[in-house]
Amino acid sequence: MSTTADGGARIAALYQERILEHYRHPRHKGALARATGTRGEKNPLCGDAVAVAVYVVDGIVQEAAWTGTGCSIMQATASMLMEFVPGQSREAIEGFGRRFDAMLASGAPDDALGELAALVGVAPFAARHKCARLPWKALLGAVGDGGR
Amino acid sequence: MTTRTAFSDLRADFPLLAANPGLVYLDSAATSQKPRAVLDAVRDYYETANANPHRGAYKLSGTATDAYHGARREIARFLGAADADTLLFTRGTTEAVNLLATGWGQAHVHRGDRIVVTRMEHHANFVPWQQLARAVGAEFRICELTKDGLVDLDQLRALVTANTKVVAFGHVSNALGTINDVREIVAIAHGIGAVAFCDGAQGAPHLRVGFDDLGVDAYAFSGHKMLGPMGIGGVIVKRRVLETMHPYQFGGDMIEFVFDGDTTWNVPPHKFEAGTPNVEGAVGLAAAVRYLEALGMDAVRAHEMALTRYAMERLAVIEGLHLFGPASAEARSGVVSFTLGDIHPHDVSTMLDVDGVCVRAGHHCAQPLMRALHQSATVRASFYVYNTADDVDALVASLVKAKARFHAHA
């Protein structure tokens, strides 16, 4: 059972300012003028929906953008992810996706993920992992691996 | 604080609540907690009476049979049905509606017929009828709600045409708390000769049902929402309707004679209860209805209405909180469904969770309703016998805290 004592610290880590800031002012939200791949993902249990569009040249993501509705964790993840992926290859993104999953499983921040490491606060909330994974799933679909 | 009644010390009867004094359980519409009396009854059954009912010629099997049917009689009496053998045990309301849509529906609904449901139905009382309509080529029509979250009875009268075979509706909405006017809906259905089937999953735990006086042709319920174990529930069906129904599942106990080429059926309730029954569940649910009877269903209703009224008053003053459903506590059961400004319901739920406040966030298995409300999700708090005004206060305090956190640096 949760207690307020440690709960306060866990909730502070989950809803840290950097995450709420992305939620309030999402980056790269909207359509992409030119896209080489798009993928929409939905979570039927909560109604969250996200669509990611990417523009890939020679195997390297040039631009990425997203649209969608959902909770702060899903939206902040999408926002951070769109800032993170330009310049990355599909293989590199898949590798980061695995590291992100490992971070949620372990609860240890992974600095290789840049700002996305802030989402380590989601780790203790197993019911919310799917919120953070949804934009990853859409991104991986858009870059062409068919999702995980 | 108007709700400090004899109900204020019931937590001690519920081992999970007693062991977690900080827990504010406000999700009884999803499932209720269980009193010790129910847990003891299940254990006692296995320690003193366990055998396969109906099967053995030995005494212990007879004891198990008596326990099973004794439970049926007690539950039927609690729900106001004199003819206990018209109470069919199922795993819960979902299976009960599937039983009706299959066993009754396939016998009575044909191409060109009409099935009417309402906009507030739980998926369990929506999808089985929708799929029956698709399978046989019947029309599937949805009665919309008024702005206040009530079934629009004028529209229902227009929708229930001569080719309508069944009106399927919930006694109480799990998502809005609306208490439906059962007698009026039944009158509309019966007016053209259709049957009226009621999903009582959210009714039986909170209101006096009085099946024989209610007029509905079938009333389905779930034990786990009314202090009983999971995996037991049932449906009471008027005998003249029951006699026209096909078996739902085939197997042991539901047969009379099995020949190489065909089979004849046992009498109700056995005809609709294939396989070894859930005796522990039935016995546990009987203990649950004894517990509710001791409280008195009128007192249960009064307690929940007072709590709901108090909650609605306190929630109304939280800026940005939007409450869905009927405006008066009299028109609803112990359910408050709301959104909190621009904070997503799942974020609300997570923030409440760390304060020990358990609420449901999501579409409440009522996607057709949520689409009509233009919401992807709401937060739902639901009350039961063990909740008190302190629980409402904890909910409100946690919501205020959540708002402050989300908007601190906006």
Termini of chain A, distance in Å? 32 Å
Q: What general outline of chain B do the C-alpha atoms trace?
A: globular
Classify the secondary structure makeup of chain B into a structural class. Answer: alpha/beta
Structural class of chain A: alpha+beta
Which fold name corresponds to the CATH topology of chain A?
Sufe protein. Chain: A
Shape descriptor of chain A reads globular
Q: Please write the CATH class name of chain A.
A: Alpha Beta
Précis, in short:
The complex is a heterodimer of chains A (148) and B (410). Chain A contains five helices and three strands.
What does this structure look like?
The complex is a heterodimer of chains A (148) and B (410). With 148 residues, chain A is α+β, with helices and mostly antiparallel strands. Helix content of chain A is 43%, strand content 17%. Chain A has a single domain, classed as Sufe protein. Chain: A (Alpha-Beta Complex), CATH 3.90.1010.10. Chain A has a three-stranded antiparallel β-sheet with strand order 1-2-3, covered by helices on one side. The termini of chain A are far apart. Chain B has 14 helices and 15 strands. A seven-stranded mixed β-sheet of chain B has the order 2-8-7-6-5-3-4, sandwiched between helices. The two termini of chain B are 35 Å apart. In chain B, strand 6, helix 8 and strand 7 form a beta-alpha-beta unit. Classes of the chains: A alpha+beta (148), B alpha/beta (410). Chains A and B meet through helix 1 and helix 2 of A and helix 12 of B.
Keywords:
heterodimer; A: about 150 residues; alpha+beta; Sufe protein. Chain: A; 3-stranded antiparallel β-sheet; about 45% helix; globular; B: about 400 residues; alpha/beta; Aspartate Aminotransferase, domain 1; Aspartate Aminotransferase, domain 2; 2 domains; 7-stranded mixed β-sheet; 4-stranded antiparallel β-sheet; 14 helices; 15 strands; about 15% strand
